Amino acid sequence: MAALLSSLKTDPIMSEHNKDQTTHFGYEQVKSEDKVKRVADVFHSVAGKYDLMNDLMSGGVHRLWKRITIEQSGVRRGMNVLDIAGGTGDLTMRFSRLVGPTGKVVLADINDSMLKVGRDKLYDKGVTGNVEFVQANAEALPFPDNHFDVITIAFGLRNVTDKDAALRSMARVLKPGGKVMVLEFSKTDNPLLTKAYDFYSFNILPQIGQVVAGDADSYRYLAESIRMHPDQETLKSMMEQAGLVNCKYQNMTGGVVALHTGIKP
Amino acid sequence: MLDMLSSTLFTMAEESVNAVLRNDPASLQQLSQLEGKIIAIQLTQPDLRFAILPNADGLQLHSQLGLDADVTLTGTASDFIRLLSSPDKADAMFGNGISVTGNNGLATQLQHILSASHFDWEAKLAGLIGDLPAHQLAGFFSFKGNQYRTAGNSLMENLQEYLKEESDLLPHRAQVEDFLNAVDTLRDDADRLEARFQALSARINKD
Q: What is the pTM of this model?
């Protein structure tokens, strides 16, 4: 689905490292240090057509997943919000209006192409004043401890090389009582849906990517990276290990996407 | 599942309204002056609450209940439809229908924007979904609005009739008017009597 793309944005690939310091890049095994560059290449390639592709690939459903995330965030006036892997700014734009002039939203992305597209789009929409744009690696967030009320990462975590480090970093910069929200592709629980979804991901999605963005490989990576991402229960336990409590998840569209939330004690 | 449904409805509503607003740069410019404000809409029939965040790009809708609204407009769906379709927005907003709590100035600003825009929602919607569906939709809302008003009026009339004729708990209008006229006459007589007492008293004191 559309949001696949976004996942790439954040940065380096999958978090499961092995002793030889290799990790997943889709179904490929690559050196950990190479993953950052290869994911970056994917997002440099898709940045310009990112929003269009998201709509085409998901039939617009990514807007609903993001709206649910925003509605459940509890973000209100005066809050500090961090939107990691914020890409083209869909969440940031809405958060910006919710926090108002007394709050602040930081749009962080490791990929400068995505960040530029997001910054231009938000400026065009008149979103200025309470938004900052920061190029940052999710594994080592350049913010003080206990700083944000809400942190979101939408379709970004699966592109992070060391997901555990990223979750720990998020927990560090989150205020006590603050909320981390991870919106990410996940595992479907219906065999028929899984079959249809696999067919779509590996046969149709790369074709759409080729026709619209002229880049089938990037979209194939997106599909593969989704399959390599931890399932709902695994991600939930990873969040707990990062020090978050009250961790839970909500499946959407039959588990194609899951929204995980956790609170900093 | 309910979240997806609600999310779908809010997304469709927001995108439809903003598509209409994009064709009206003057209204968008005025709405941008309300940026940062939160307007809560509380529908009583049906029971539904949501928030509107005006901005330079149109309106952002939220179903989130915890937002700290600057102003809350409360009324039935029919009242809000009347607000959109009535030529007299001030009467529709501050008249009998919608109650305003919070920042009244903000409600006035919103009412001015609605008045100045002269939105023909039926025509604007027609551009999006075609003439016939737009007309049917507008007709449906208008019909429903009128139907609810008629039903409401009819209920009130029946209730009045019962209280007057059946239970004899309330007097007829003519009886009330006779009674009020008699009170007025009595008050005038009393005033005149008092004046005569004062005149007599003044004469006695003078003598």
A: 0.72
